[in-house]
Amino acid sequence: MASAFASTAPYWVPALSALMVYRRIRRTFGVQPWRPVRSGIRLGILALVACMLIVLAVVQPQLAPAMAVGAVLGVGVGLLALKHTHVAMRDGRRVYTPNPWIGGALTVLLVGRLAWRWTHDGLAATQAAPSALTLGLAAVLIVYSLVYLIGLMLQMRKLASAQASEPQAVDQTHP
Questions:
Q1: Which of 5, 110, 142, 173 falls 20 to 30 Å from 21 in CA-CA distance?
Q2: Residue 47, pLDDT score
Q3: CA-CA distance, 165 to 154, in Å (whole number)?
Q4: Ramachandran angles phi, psi of 14, nearest 5°
Q5: Spatial separation of the C-alpha atoms in residues 125 and 117, rounded to whole Å
Q6: CA-CA distance, 131 to 134, in Å (whole number)?
Q7: Closest among 146, 111, 109, 107 to 26, alpha carbons compared
Q8: Degrees, nearest 5: CA angle 35-37-38
Q9: CA-CA distance, 152 to 82, in Å (whole number)?
Q10: pTM for the complete prediction?
C-alpha cells in the first residue's frame, strides 16, 4: 500500500499544488463574499500552523532568524494589504475587494518557491534539515494571512455594526 501511495506522488502532489494555487488566485482578485464561518476555520488552522512554526524555531534555533524576519515582513504586508482592502455591503451581504497587486505578489512568491524546489530538489526529494528560506517564506505567508484575516474580521464586524445602527428607511407611500 505504501509503495502504491509513493509511486503516485509525482502525479497527485502537483495536482494538489495547482489546486491550492488556483484557490489562492481566486481569493486574491475581484470582489469576494465574506464567509465568517470559513474565515474562522481558516483562522484556527493558520494559528495552529503558526504555533508549529514557533515550535520549530525553538527546536532548531538556526532557523529562528529567518522565521522572525519572515514574521515581521508578514505583519507589514498584512497591514499594507488591509489598508488597501475595500469592504462594503452589496445586496445586503458583506463583501470585500483585496488589493490585486499585493495578493498577486504573494502568489508569485509562493509559486516561485515551489517551482524552485521542484526543479532543483525534485518532487519527492527530502532534506536532512529544513531550508531557512522556505521557512522564512512560510512565515511571511502565514503571518500575513493571520494579520489580514484578523483585520478583515474586525473591518467586517465594524461594517455590520454600522449597518445595524443606520435607521431603516420608512415607507412613506402607505400610511
A1: 5
A2: 95
A3: 17
A4: -65, -35
A5: 9
A6: 5
A7: 107
A8: 65
A9: 7
A10: 0.78
Cβ(81)–Cβ(103) under 8 Å? yes
Q: Are strands 93-97 and 86-90 parallel, antiparallel or unpaired?
A: antiparallel
Which residue from 108, 127, 107 is spatially nearest to 117, judged by alpha carbons?
A: 127
CA atoms within 13 A on the CB side of 130: 18
The rounded distance, in Å, linking the Cα atoms of 173 and 67 is: 63
Show Cβ contacts of residue 163 under 8 Å, excluding neighbours closer than 6 positions: 89
Assigned C-alpha cell, 129: 534539515
Split the chain (175 residues) into runs of 10 and give each run's mean pLDDT: 62 69 70 89 93 91 92 95 92 88 85 76 60 88 94 91 66 39
One-letter identity of residue 138: A
How many CA within 13 A on the CB side of residue 29? Answer: 9
> Which of 152, 165, 166, 144 minimizes the C-alpha distance to 34?
152
- Secondary structure of residue 170 in the 3-state scheme: coil
